[in-house]
Amino acid sequence: MVKPLALSAGDPAGVGAEIIAKAWATLRHEGPSFVVVGDAQLLASAGGGVKVRVVTRPQDVAAVFPDALPVIDIPLLSPVVAGQPSPAYAPQVIRWIETGVGLALSGAVSGLVTAPIAKAPLYEAGFKFPGHTEFLAELTAAERFEGARGPVMMLAAADLRATLVTIHTSIAKVPAALDVESIVNSGLVTAQALRRDFGIAQPRLAIAALNPHAGEGGALGREEIEIIAPAVRALQDLGVDCFGPAPADTLFHPEARVRYDGVLCMYHDQALIPVKMLDFWGGVNITLGLPIVRTSPDHGTGFDIAGRGIARPDSLIAAIKLAADIAARRGA
Length: 332
Fold this sequence. Notes:
The chain is an alpha/beta fold. The chain has helices at residues 16-27, 40-44, 61-64, 90-106, 119-124, 132-140, 174-177, 180-196, 223-237, 254-257, 268-278, 314-330; strands at residues 5-8, 34-38, 52-54, 69-73, 112-114, 144-145, 148-149, 152-157, 160-164, 204-208, 241-246, 262-265, 284-288, 294-297. Strands 3-4-2-1-5-14-13-8-9-12-10-11 form a twelve-stranded mixed β-sheet, sandwiched between helices. It has a two-stranded antiparallel ribbon with strand order 6-7. It is globular, with a radius of gyration of 20 Å.
């Protein structure tokens, strides 16, 4: 029997419950199936005629899923006001994630899809991690692949797969955060994931430059000469088919994208802007280098539209389908 996915419900004041309900309505007859870890009452109030059924075991999901949204109920302790985040929700939000990870690590579910969380209220409650990705790495003791270690964030949309060397790092701090080791590590994890999770037997990586025109021989910055080019050579010596550092402004048009299977970007927006331009509604965030499958929608909590019934579930649906595809390739 095919195992369901687990889906952590995200920030209660955001659009998580709404897009989960809409995703279930779309996938209930065609799959893949999933069980939500969250507050059953909140999900039942998400609108759209969703029916909720509390389950205690992932094994019960298959029988329930066509008729009702299965939920492992971990109730909130404070009332929720749509669009108004609060640190009062943090203990349950964290527990939902921890429970989903535990189910995935135990093999009870085939992978984890995470609805968006808001970082600020979690920080107010004492959350010590920059975001979901880093928290998941701690919970799973992120595994080593070919001498490299996750987590590595990948964003996927259309035919573009972009991974990040630095993740939630301010632009001002990116140059100091780059080194040969971190680029090589990210490249190794990306190449391994392209083989294992995407079925690409001989993946080719493009390595983006940091500076305009790839530094123009050092005139516009020396990171390409001193850090990125040595990392490219090291990756090649380790058997990774890659090229770069390549000017980022010429890496993302259709003719360029046919030259590679994945692109390694130096900072957050270098990857996120082209991904969102290609498919603003359907992009997916994948965490590479974990012992579990993890995806999430490529958008935030949507506090500004929460409770209005207008949130689109496209990205969450894409994240669920991709998680199921990766899990099938892993045999999870």
